[in-house]
Design a protein that fits this description.
It comes from Ephemerocybe angulata. This is GST N-terminal domain-containing protein. One of its GO terms (cellular component) is cytoplasm. With 262 residues, the protein is an alpha+beta fold. 55% of the residues lie in helices and 10% in strands. It contains 10 helices and 6 strands. Helix 1 runs parallel beside helix 3, helix 4 crosses helix 5 and helix 8 crosses helix 10. The mean pLDDT is 94.
């Protein structure tokens, strides 16, 4: 059995981490049996240490020591325990070559570079409009207070004060849309190079028929926004129509792979 370690929220399915979502999407896409174990966000390092799971040596503290982060995966079949979502997905492709592959030896580096690019484009802006809503989904008053302080540090003001001026979120959402326009350009370029016709231009995945790592990386961010803001929110309804509905199609194609198994 494969165990995916995630952190707890107050959502019905308990999870909104985009990094855990990446791994969960791939596990479900590969149809690999697995379960999810949740840690309280304030107990991540304690719990990981107690289970003798590895820290994330790709995410270092200022002193150079590795952080203890979510997700972590433990595969009982091989005895492997891996931290960091990109590294976990790379492991799943290598360990289970007969399942659908989302990376390849020749594209791994470029896939991870593309992910860094889209994260750099989207997350600084999205955090400002998704973060305030995410505060309410943190488990317990202590975690809520801590997360609120982090979000307000990013906003430069108390959440209520920042939201009271409608120009603040409006400006950020305009920046978010601009970032998606840039990413849409990457998808369009891939379609042009592939010589696709107009009907085919509405394909979902950047690589064609099958899901690749770039799609998973972007879809996991969409999952985070969808879960935190809610499917009926006006912001989400607008987002899925941008760029000819491309992001709505991508989300719908991957939504079935986001199911949490405990």
């Amino acid at each position: 059995m494969i165990t995916l370690y995630d952190y707890l929220t107050e959502l019905p399915d308990k999870s909104f981490s985009p990094y855990a979502a990446k791994v969960r999407i791939v596990l479900n896409y590969k149809n690999l049996p697995h379960r999810t174990v949740f840690f309280h966000p304030l107990e991540i390092e304690t719990q990981i240490r107690a289970l003798n799971l590895p820290p994330n040596d790709l995410d270092l503290k200022p002193d150079g020591s590795p952080r203890y982060t979510i997700p972590v995966l433990h595969d009982e079949a091989t005895g492997e325990a891996i931290s960091d979502s990109a590294r976990i997905i790379d492991y799943l492709d290598r360990a289970y070559p007969d399942t659908p592959q989302v990376t390849s030896p020749s594209t791994r580096v470029t896939s991870f570079a593309f992910e860094s690019t889209i994260q750099g484009l989207l997350l600084p802006h999205l955090y400002l409009v998704v973060g305030p809503k995410a505060v309410k989904l943190q488990p317990g008053d202590v975690r809520k207070a801590y997360f609120r302080s982090v979000v307000e540090g990013a906003l430069g003001a108390p959440i209520e004060e920042w939201l009271a001026n409608p120009e603040n979120p409006q400006k950020v959402w305009k920046d978010v849309q601009g970032a998606f326009d840039v990413i849409d350009g990457y998808y369009r370029k891939a379609e042009v190079i592939a010589g696709l016709g107009r009907e085919e231009e509405k394909r979902v995945f950047i690589g064609g028929k099958g899901m690749v790592y770039a799609d998973v990386a972007l879809a996991s961010i969409l999952v985070w926004v969808w879960k935190v803001l809610g499917e009926e929110s006006e912001e989400w309804k607008r987002l899925v129509t941008w760029n000819g509905g491309r992001w709505g199609r991508l989300h719908e194609a991957i939504k079935g792979y986001t199911v949490v198994h405990e």
